[in-house]
Design goal:
It is a single chain. The protein folds into 2 domains: 2-65 and 95-164 and 264-360, FAD/NAD(P)-binding domain (3-Layer(bba) Sandwich); 167-261, D-Amino Acid Oxidase, Chain A, domain 2, CATH 3.30.9.30. 35% of the residues lie in helices and 25% in strands. It has 11 helices and 18 strands. The strands form 4 sheets. Strands 6-5-14-15-16-13-17 form a 7-stranded mixed beta sheet, sandwiched between helices. Strands 8-2-1-12-18 form a 5-stranded parallel beta sheet. Strands 3-7-4 form a 3-stranded antiparallel beta sheet. The structure holds flavin-adenine dinucleotide. Flavin-adenine dinucleotide binds at residues 6-12, 29-32, 39, 42-43, 118-119, 147-149, 153, 172, 174, 259, 279-281, 287, 290-294, 296.
Length: 365
Amino acid sequence: MRTVIVGAGLVGLTTAASLRLIGHDVTVLEHAPEVRAVGAEIGLWPNALREFDKLGIGDAVRHMGDTVDAWFFDAAGKPERADGYDPSRYRFLMVPRPGLNTLLAETVGLERIRLGTHVTGFTEHDTHVEVHVSDGPSSRADLLIGADGVYSDVRAALVPGSSAVEHEGNRVWRAMVPSGDERPEGTALTIGSNRTRGGYTRVAGGQTMWWVNQFNAGAPAGGKRERALRQARNLAKDGWHDELAAMIAATPEEAILENQIMLVPRLPYWTTGRVALIGDAAHGLSPHLAVGGTLGIEDAGVLRAELDGETDPAEALVRYETARRARMDKVREHSDAIEYADGAVENAERFAALSDWMLTTAPAT
Ligand SMILES: Cc1cc2nc3c(=O)[nH]c(=O)nc-3n(C[C@H](O)[C@H](O)[C@H](O)COP(=O)(O)OP(=O)(O)OC[C@H]3O[C@@H](n4cnc5c(N)ncnc54)[C@H](O)[C@@H]3O)c2cc1C
């Protein structure tokens, strides 16, 4: 089957590699001039690593990452974990995003990735799909997968009126800095006052990643560093997090990444006969869950399993959509519960409920 995948992000590349495994002739169309990754590190859960094991790169990914054994802290540094959950529910692998995407691109085959190619839409026929690009002839495919993120052009053509919307006031600041004498076990994740979350964690290469996530942030004022510092004060009480404040203060303005978080509305459908959405294009949610990429990788595994051995994709896509929409509906419930958790104790309880549910119900593909 000739399959075109739009987007060479984490999920598009994983999907391309997964579909190659079952014999698809894949082409990835990416509008950026290079395979890139926004952000420094991503936390991956065992359900994501299982798909990488299938692709034969699980050990390489584990090797490039660091295991994080997370605690939830209150603003004075008191550690919390919910009772009754296995310790593995707090453990994930922190992996450098650029290295991971490079490894995935190599696994797909660089000759199968067409960079600098902006997809504008598609025309679906009974027997094939034409994929339109901004300059050059359309590509013809049996199957089109939109892995083009929250601002997906494939989604815009498939589900008109489904533009991503701002998660009002939800902003994230993050950066990588050289590790110093901060506590090596890190402070991920502190739940502060005024709906602020954040902390830092040591990652590979002598680096430390810090981040601050603010719900209900007011109108932005001042520079990025100033804004991050202002919110970070909500994470600090009685000297806890002096080192976070110092880290932020010492980060060059241009090294700080600031995002307004966008949400993909709940879609009425994700697929038609020959077109499917995957990853953030289908279900981009707020990063306070820290599972969006992991669930996109799960999507790829389910799509692979459903398409395996199929010559007509339509029925496989219906099965894929049914399974994944139901799972993401449940994730939306967890997302709301965690967003509105009141303090570290409640957050720990609700996060453990999410990770426990996610790991115990992960599809066996
Ligand atoms: C601050 C933050 C922290 C997060 N932390 C975690 C975490 O710890 N764990 C976790 O699992 N998830 C995390 N997530 C979520 C995770 O980053 C996303 O779910 C994941 O990166 C989505 O990958 P994707 O491939 O679907 O989309 P993207 O990474 O957005 O990739 C889309 C690709 O499509 C390309 N593209 C877009 N439009 C077109 C077009 N028209 N034509 C051609 N190419 C196009 C883009 O250039 C891009 O390369 C976090 C998110 C944020 C914002």
